[in-house]
Every structure is written in structure tokens, then in C-alpha cells.
Amino acid sequence: MLRPARVSALVAGLLAAPMLACPAILAAALLWAAPAVSLAAQPAPSAEPVPAESDPNHHFVVVTFANNPYRPAARAGSTGRRYSSNTYGIAQNAHTNAQHVARAYSLKEIISWPIKELGVHCVVYEIPDARPLADVLAALAKDPRVTLAQPLQEFRTLTNDTDHPAPEASYNDPLYGLQTNLVSLGIPGAHERAQGDGVRVALIDTGVDTAHPDLRDRITRTRSFVASSLIKSGAPPAPAGAASYRHGTAMAGLIAAVANNKVGIVGIAPLAHIEVFEACWQLEPNSDAAACNTFTLAQAIAAALEAGAPLINMSIAGPADPLLSALVQTGLKRGVIFVGSASDEPNSFPTNIEGVIGVGSSEREHTNTTLSAPGSHVLTLLPGNQYDFESGTSVAAAQVTGVVALLLSADNHLSADNIVQLLKGSPGTVPGAVLNVSAALAKVEAGRGMSRLARSAH
User: Fold this and answer.
1) Rounded distance, CA 386 to CA 320, Å?
2) DSSP-assigned letter for residue 72
3) Span 385-413, mean pLDDT?
4) Among residues 363, 367, 357, which one has the least CA distance to residue 336?
5) What is the Cβ-side half-sphere exposure of residue 60, based on CA atoms within 13 angstroms?
6) What is the model's pLDDT at position 121?
7) CA atoms lying within 13 Å on the CB side of residue 256
């Protein structure tokens, strides 16, 4: 999975030609329909909604830093670079410069990410006081660490589409306007029918930042199987605490981030309950790359089965493993639904096991793929009340896990085969969409109605 680079910004003399600056921010601005500063939804890890009116004390700047990341080779079983494509991460120098600039100019970093096409790390900062925007931009433009500095600007489309309302209309979560994946999957319509209430999802991954405000009351259990130093021999040191839970936090956010709490984003199944089984460890600071092994995964899968979780997400990939396969097959025989990340490697666990729902990115082809979901630049959570864009089949698998939770909340008797057929038979309503969850839920409701009629006839 492409590790999220926390939204970095472009800043420098782009005032004269802003439309050449930060493509991701321009795209975000086109999606955001609210006036003034609220446009890009990027300023929103705080619990307060973004102001609807322009405020001289509430400005955001976009700053970029040169970014030439180091890419170490991936290891087997990695949840990171091994099965994502076109990985482009944050260089340590760019990360350090972004932190130093924030301190030097008293700025608050909101969100950031690396832009491969421009070779920069792009950061959005908030000016937390009443300093004039022009003065801050002038100072940043003179800083040799900065390659570009500009205001965060608003852009609007010049169409009037009355048939398709703006995607942010249904939610008060300030970053929803950037979640194009939800629209392509038909999630807004699906949420009118189901939101995952009562469904338990076992997340086998790294740990999760349970204190993130967008996961409040969503995490009901956490167990760790990575404490022994023997199982992690040779692994580089990872940061302590929630900072080492990047991958798991990102997956949990995609599945069940709280909706309509005036914070951050909307999860696909915002009322589902996540049980975290920590089997993987982060390989390096400020990175989503994580690894696990037969021992830790076997313990986690066994614990999830023992806990009776009906749905298990494994956004990992690695070599075929007899012990792990036996555990998964045991769960499948019990009716447990497994969702795993598709890999570019043939015969890769867990999607090499018949019955596991293997999920690939809709932007490209993968082996062992049952379903596909958006897997490029999908917004989700980071530890420490942050948000970022993620890419890779980890992302796609977590979204499909959320989709399965929606379907199970509508009918908890559905099998994995039932769910796959429902989703494959529900093409998207917009070009390029793979699944239409709202249409699948409508079929579930219709089927329940027919069953009630049949029962009443006897």
C-alpha cells in the first residue's frame, strides 16, 4: 500500500499562476462546493467545522519542498510496498524541512502528501493567528527550504448539474468533499438503507490509534501479538505508541470512521464495530510499510475466530502459508467472511485461498481478484488526529470490508458467495465505478420482502 504522505503543499510565487501549482489541491477544490476557505476540506483534523465565510484570522497556505525519497527493498509479508504500484513516499529531508518551517513561521500543519509528478512534498499549513496572509507568503518565498508557497484557493466548476447534487450535501464531515471513492461506490445512497450497525469487523493489521476522534466508540476490542522481541528479530525500530499504528489506523478509518460528527471523513460502514488484532509492526517511522509473520498472524486469526467475528479484514499479502491457510479454511467452513488484498505475486496469501474475497484496485489489474474498489489517493485517517491520502490494494480491501459490513447489517445470513454475486451484479452508476453498494442493498431489501411474502402465504 502506498504510504500516505500527509498532504504537503506548494507555496512560492504561484500567486501569478496558481493553476499550475498543486494538482491534488486543485482537484480537491473542484470537488468542494462550500464557499471561501471551506473548499478543500483539507483543514480539518480539528473537531470544529471549517468556517463558511472568509476570516482574516483563518488562512491556509500551500507549501512544497523538494522530495527525493529513499526506497528500501520490500520484505515478504509486507503490508506496504510489496503489493502497491508506483510507490512514492516522503524523503526524511522533506519531512524534516516541513517540520522546521512550521516551527520557524508558527504554522500548523493540517495535511500533507508527496506529489510524484512534481517531485515535491506538498503541505497545507494553517496560519493560526492574525498575521496577514501576504506577509507569511512573502517570508516563505524567501526561505531556501521552500520550493513554492501560495494561498489555498477556491475553484468552482462552471456547470449546473441538478441531477447529481454535490457529494458533501448529505454529511457535515468537513473532508467528505474529498472522498470521491464513496460517490463511485454508491455509498451515500447505501447509507440511507444501512450503515453497518451491529456488525463486528476483525481487523488483523498493525495496532490502531483508538484515541482518534473519527474512531470514537468504533473500536470495541484490541489485542496485540507482537510483544515478543523474538518474532521481530531483524526488524528496524518503530516509533512508540500510536505513531506506529499508521496502517491499521488508516484501514480502520476507511471501514468505520464516524459519520456526521463534524470531524474529518465518513467511513463506509460508520456504525460497524471494529475489533483490532495486532499482528503486524511498522517498519520505519512516518511510513505505512508494516510486516507480520506466520506466528503473529496465526495467533491473530485464531483469536479472531475464537472471538466469533463474522467478518475479517486482512490488508496484507505474502507467500502461501500452510498453517495460515488451514486457519482461514477453518473459518470459511464456519461461515466467516475473509477479505484480503490482492497482490501482483501469484499464489499470494490470503487471496490464494478459495473463498477469500480478494480485492484489487479498480485502477489496475491484479491476480487473485474477486472484486475491485478505488485504490488510488483515497482519503483516510492517520494517528494523532490526522488525515491523508492512501493508495494500494490495502485501501481497496478495507473499503470492500466496509461494503460487506453494510450488506451484513441488512441481512446477517448472507454468505461470501451471496455478497460477491450481489456486488458483481450491481454495476456502478458513474464511469469507471466497479461496485454500486446502494443497488446491492436494494436487492437485499427486495429479497427480504419476497421472503416475507412467501412466509405469509403459508
Assistant:
1) 35
2) P
3) 95
4) 357
5) 29
6) 87
7) 31
Distance CA 267, CA 438 (A): 15
Identity of the residue numbered 127: I
CA distance 277 to 446: 36
Is the predicted pLDDT of residue 403 greater than 60, yes or no? yes
**The pTM of the whole model exceeds 0.70:** no
Do residues 174 and 421 lie in contact, with contact meaning Cβ atoms separated by under 8 Å? no
> Can you point out the beta strands (E) in 29-93?
59-66
Q: Which residues contact 452 (CB under 8 A, 6 or more apart)?
A: none
Q: Which residue has cell 496560519?
A: 127
Q: What percent of the chain has pLDDT over 70?
A: 72
Query: Which among 428, 376, 389, 445 is positioned nearest to 187, based on CA atoms?
Result: 428
| Per-residue pLDDT tens digits for 136-165 | 999 999 999 999 888 876 553 343 333 434
Domains of the chain are 18-151 (3.30.70.260), 172-451 (3.40.50.200)
DSSP H helices, 170-260, are 180-185, 187-190, 246-256
What gap in Å lies between CA 408 and CA 196, rounded to an integer?
Answer: 7
* Residue 369 burial (CB count, 10 A): 19
